[in-house]
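Repro:
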Amino acid sequence: MRAMKSRILLSMVSFLMLFGYIGCVATKSKVYINPNVNFRFVKKVGVLPFENFTNDRFAHKKVRDIFVTTLLASEMVEVPELGELLQVINNINLAGSAAPGQETFKGTITKEVAKELGQTLKIQGIVLGNVEEYNIVRSGSGSYPEVSLSLRMIDAKTGSIIWAISHTEKGNRILPSILGIGEGTVTETAIKACKKIVETLIYK
């Protein structure tokens, strides 16, 4: 009887430890919003290709797609097609711009470039971003997905930054999958991150 009670107690402790790991979720954000900007007048936003500082060679494309989808789902703004955006950039001969068919951009958005994009595409804002983390972080006690992004929106009329955010999203931490519990995916974590980022935009 004593041995059975000990096994039950051990099982309960293991169960609580497991859920302790599963529930370990962390989010960190730093947000800047220009107080003089009324975002209700920002109706159309161009989203340039993000830069990739991770070991996943496609992380910038994955995250940008998720971010654009989240923006559109919010029904706050329209977003022109990426090819259309890059074509305008190439037409104004921006140094370092993308070649046709490539989803990369390493040029500089000056005031003149921002204004040209705004006038040609009828956009009020231009979003640029960096993907700094997009991976599974492993440790002796388990692992968790982590996504870290830095985004900023430039006013298409003035070329100044009107919104910026640095956001890190850590997914559910779990024990090694000896109990048949799979790892939370990096994609799911990126979706959560983008939802929280879009919520920081003020549309009231």
